[in-house]
Every structure is written in structure tokens, then in C-alpha cells.
Amino acid sequence: DSAAYCNYTVPPHYDSLIAKLIVHAEDRKAAIKRMAGALDEYNVEGVKTNIPLHRKIMKDHDFQAGNVDIDFLSRYS
């Protein structure tokens, strides 16, 4: 889901949620695999994104196993 398109110019005071990536699959493992693949194909230029963070999270063994809590993201800051 995105408000952006090819050659879109992001205004200087943009909403930080320019786009969101949603995947569906038959189970958590398949959804994580699909999301990791989609993130690897996602290409955004000109603005900083959190795609690298999400790529790292998809590879995290605790995340893959569903072992996350309120402090999970603090490991990535």
C-alpha cells in the first residue's frame, strides 16, 4: 500500500508512512520468508527508510520463533 509511485518526489514535510508492505501466507514461517523476499526486492531512493531494520528482524531467530516482547526492538537501536 503506497502513496508513492515511480519518479514520485517526496515533499520536504512528508508523512513518514509513505508506504507499507503487507504479506500473507499459510503460516508464520512462510509469511516471514515471503516478507524477507519482498524486502529484498523493495527499492526506495531519496529518503531514509527502515527497510534495513526490517530485513534484520526477519532474520532474527527469536522473531522467527515468535519470542518477542516489549524490549525486542531495543536490541536494534
What can you tell me about this protein's structure?
- It is a single chain.
- With 77 residues, this protein is mainly alpha-helical.
- It has one domain.
- The chain is 36% helix and 0% strand.
- The chain contains 3 helices and no strands.
- It has helices spanning 28-41, 51-59, 61-65.
- Helix 1 packs antiparallel against helix 2.
- The longest helix has 14 residues, at 28-41.
- The chain is globular.
- The two termini are 26 Å apart.
- The mean pLDDT is 88.
How do the strands and helices of this protein lay out in sequence?
Layout: H1 28-41, H2 51-59, H3 61-65
Helix pairs in contact: 1-2
Summarize the model shown.
With 77 residues, this protein is mostly helical. The chain has three helices and no strands.
Distance between the termini: 26 Å
Number of strands: 0
Strand content: under 5%
Element pattern in H and E: HHH
Pairing-aware structural class of the strands and helices? Answer: mainly alpha
How many H/I helical runs? Answer: 3
How would you classify the quaternary structure?
single chain
Spans of at least 5 consecutive residues with low confidence: none
Helix content: 25-40%
Principal-axis shape: globular
Major sheet characteristics: none
The average pLDDT value, as a whole number, equals 88
Rg, Cα atoms, Å: 14 Å
Domains (count):
1
Which short descriptors sum up this protein?
single chain
